[in-house]
Amino acid sequence: MRPEFTADLELFPDATCYEIELVIDLETVTLTGHERVVYTNTEDASLDALYLRLFPNTPGYGNPLASHVTRPMSVTDMAIDGQPVRPTVELGGSALRLPLDPSLAPGEAMELAIDFTLSLPTDTEAGYRQLGYYDQVLALANAYPLIPVYDDEGWNVEVASPYGDAVYSDSAFYTVRVTAPADLELAASGTCIAPTANPDGSATWTCVTGPVRDFNAVLRAGYQVESKLIDGVTVNSIFYPQHQEGGERVLDYATEAVRMFSDWFGAYPFTELDVVETPTRAGGIEYPGLVVINSTYYETLSERMEWVVVHEVGHQWWYSLVGNDQVDEPWLDEALVQYSTLLYFEERYGADLAAQLVKQVFRRTYEELVDSGRDLPAGLPVAAYSGEDYGPVVYQKGPLYFHALRQEVGEEDFWATLEAYFAGNRYEIATPGDWLAAVEAVTGDEQRALYEEWIVKTTGQ
After folding, report:
1. Contact 10, 31 (CB under 8 A)
2. Are residues 444 and 354 in the same domain?
3. Does 67 have pLDDT greater than 90?
4. What's the average model confidence in pLDDT over 354-362?
5. Does 239 share its domain with 315?
6. What is the pLDDT of residue 91?
7. pLDDT confidence of 68, banded at 50, 70, 90?
């Protein structure tokens, strides 16, 4: 945490704490892990079970949910408060249910000890390559058992669609030790100290986070780093050695995005942000304190690179600092991040370009949806859309709601609403109701008609 935000740590007396050890064997491309988790029941009701998510066993990470398929992640041993426990395997191996007897009362804490193994994907044609070993890059996104959110629906353990985000989790604290070949360079969520050498030729990095929703680490030999300090935040552009120009461009885009979003929405409280080149099949993917960007952009110096980098940086505000249910309410981060990216382009390149982008990127796609009879509300769960329609509806139609709201309430109230929404939900899980509450607090009205038009209804309803 930046020094001026260390007091924020007092907001989390009962936050879940993860202590994780990950040991990489590149010869077998496997990971061996040990995890200690201290979990406190912060709900109003007693819990008779606890769930763990094993995201490497889901389709979005390149693995089919089928009983006859070998699952890449396996839990080999587990104990609660020192007593062995046998979990129930659910959802094709992507969830473990741990019975609690006696139940865990409100305010009561428990300690989990978990041993697990993971075979890292190397050649899958499915998923986004956010996890695995590809093109000499080790990507360790969610390579550990994770406790999901418990809310008014109970435990959120549904399997996410492979074309959307999968993780829905509370802010927690992580201390992670990664042991891997010493010739690798590491970037990770949080802050990492210099690695210590081991007798077998490996090295161990120790990384510590503030309150974040999940953890990722990326390793590769030969990574280059260009850095810049902006408002107390060190922005690191981390890239392949042959992509110097692309790495420098990424640093410029990311630094400007951090500056703008901090000024507009609220300060970024952590000491660093890493933007890392990887062979992901997505344009980019967000994680707390770290985003990954597709290496193709660095090779081609595509004009689209700037939009992708700024979009992923924007997720540090909308998804990481202000959380939401990315599986059931993806518009609340994705559409808002898309519109935040437009605001960046407007500030940096002028209102005329921004108007063109609204017309060409958002409105034209929306009109094509309407003309083809494929228009849907922007506020549906990811699974309610086909893979073809998810992006156009949520990423292109959804931002038009924020644009319409801005035009309706005016510049001053629109910007004040963004600030109020961020301030009121920082580190928490926000809902559409929280967004509307921020709108009402600033403007005196929820502006419900606009919300219904763009988020709830389809054209002509």
Report:
1. no
2. yes
3. no
4. 97
5. yes
6. 93
7. low
